[in-house]
Amino acid sequence: MQYAPIKDEISFDDFAKIDIRVGLIVEVSEVAKSNKLMKLTVDFGDHTRSILAGIKQERENPQEIKGKQALFVVNLPERKMAGEVSQGMLFDIGYEDKLQPCLACPEVEMPNGARAG
């Protein structure tokens, strides 16, 4: 692995603005107009969101993450991609370093919607 330099320092206040929560991936479906995106339906306890993630080519079987808890950034603005709306971002590990990505997930089951930080 090629180690990347550490990014510029941010303030604690900047970090505190990021809302990272545990969500349960209840559905994984195709995005018809995309070769990379899959649509995740994610349960955050008090609500469900659609989150698009570029995992179609990263995984032999994208369906394998269905039923798993993972971390998501939930306070990004909605973004339209390939004709679908994404209401957050999957927080995964490895992609930026060109490694086989894996989910960032709690080591034990947590309530959906629990906050990281």
How does this structure look, described?
This protein is mainly beta. It has a single domain (12-103), classed as OB fold (Dihydrolipoamide Acetyltransferase, E2P) (Beta Barrel), CATH 2.40.50.140. Helix content is 4%, strand content 34%. The strands form three sheets. A five-stranded antiparallel sheet has the order 3-2-1-4-7, with no helix packed on it. It has a two-stranded antiparallel sheet with strand order 5-6. Strands 8-9 form a two-stranded antiparallel ribbon. A hairpin with a 4-residue loop joins strand 2 (38-43) and strand 3 (48-53). The protein is globular. The model has no long low-confidence stretch (mean pLDDT 96). It comes from Shewanella corallii.
In short:
With 117 residues, the chain is mainly beta.
How are the secondary structure elements laid out?
Layout: H1 12-16, E1 20-30, E2 38-43, E3 48-53, E4 69-73, E5 79-81, E6 84-86, E7 89-90, E8 92-93, E9 102-103
Any key phrases for this structure?
117 residues; mainly beta; OB fold (Dihydrolipoamide Acetyltransferase, E2P); two-stranded antiparallel sheet; 1 helix; 9 strands; 4% helix; globular
CATH topology: OB fold (Dihydrolipoamide Acetyltransferase, E2P)
Separation, N- and C-terminal Cα atoms: 27 Å
Q: Tell how many strands the DSSP assignment holds.
A: 9
Number of helices: 1
- Shape-level CATH architecture: Beta Barrel
Pairing-aware structural class of the strands and helices? mainly beta
